[in-house]
């Protein structure tokens, strides 16, 4: 079975220490190169006066992510899901890597930060589990990384949403969904991550995920009993 969880080499206390003060600062660094910015797919961006999503609608921005969203393009959940869906069929190589998500992450400034935090080397990401890299890539290409976050480690990415007050238990379209295959609810037990496409209303959700099946980007249907929680980027309506 394809591995999903990228496990840092740091001990648990050092990981916890590295998270202190993480919040939105970890997501707002520079892209790193003009080439990365130029590689973003064109999106059908809503008008400049489009409202921020319901987490901040009808009241002043109050969370770090809402404040960050005021400086970003207005991108809807539907646009992000469309971008994610266009990646369906992308497949890893026989070593478990080789995707554009790996290449992007390794060339980003975030890779240096996570190596400093977790140990190892940038080259170690070349064949690493990539579900979180996929989610991070989508956020970067959509131009909303400061409210999507970026990381190669699912647990840290989930804690970033929680530390920024954008964590909950409701499956909304475009939410970032975190799974524990054993059905646990502890963030430290997270195994996998993807995007919610739809709440099916029957105890399941339809998702778009990277590093799933036999190492592909796929649309899946998952039981909510395996969901630890959801991170909520800030979207335009």
From TrEMBL:
<dbReference type="Pfam" id="PF05257">
    <property type="entry name" value="CHAP"/>
</dbReference>
<dbReference type="InterPro" id="IPR038765">
    <property type="entry name" value="Papain-like_cys_pep_sf"/>
</dbReference>
<keyword id="KW-0732">Signal</keyword>
<protein>
    <submittedName>
        <fullName>CHAP domain-containing protein</fullName>
    </submittedName>
</protein>
<feature type="domain" description="Peptidase C51">
    <location>
        <begin position="126"/>
        <end position="211"/>
    </location>
</feature>
<dbReference type="InterPro" id="IPR007921">
    <property type="entry name" value="CHAP_dom"/>
</dbReference>
<feature type="signal peptide">
    <location>
        <begin position="1"/>
        <end position="27"/>
    </location>
</feature>
């Amino acid at each position: 079975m394809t591995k999903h969880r990228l496990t840092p080499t740091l001990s648990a206390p050092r990981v916890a220490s590295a998270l202190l003060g993480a919040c939105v600062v970890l997501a707002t660094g520079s892209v790193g190169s003009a080439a990365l910015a130029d590689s973003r797919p064109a999106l059908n961006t809503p008008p400049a006066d489009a409202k921020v999503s319901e987490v901040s609608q009808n009241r002043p921005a109050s969370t770090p992510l809402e404040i960050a969203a005021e400086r970003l393009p207005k991108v809807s959940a539907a646009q992000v899901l469309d971008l994610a869906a266009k990646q369906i069929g992308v497949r890893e190589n026989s070593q478990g890597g080789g995707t554009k998500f790996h290449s992007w992450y390794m060339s980003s400034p975030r890779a240096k930060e996570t190596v400093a935090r977790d140990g190892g080397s940038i080259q170690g990401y070349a064949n690493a589990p990539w579900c979180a890299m996929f989610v991070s890539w989508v956020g970067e290409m959509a131009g909303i990384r400061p409210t999507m976050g970026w990381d190669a480690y699912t647990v840290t990415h989930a804690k970033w949403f929680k530390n920024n007050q954008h964590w909950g238990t409701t499956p909304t379209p475009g939410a970032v969904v975190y799974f524990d295959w054993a059905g646990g609810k502890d963030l430290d037990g997270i195994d996998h991550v993807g995007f919610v496409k739809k709440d099916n209303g029957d105890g399941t959700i339809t998702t778009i995920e990277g590093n799933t099946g036999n190492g592909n980007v796929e649309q899946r249907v998952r039981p909510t009993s395996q969901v630890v929680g959801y991170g909520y980027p800030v979207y335009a309506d």
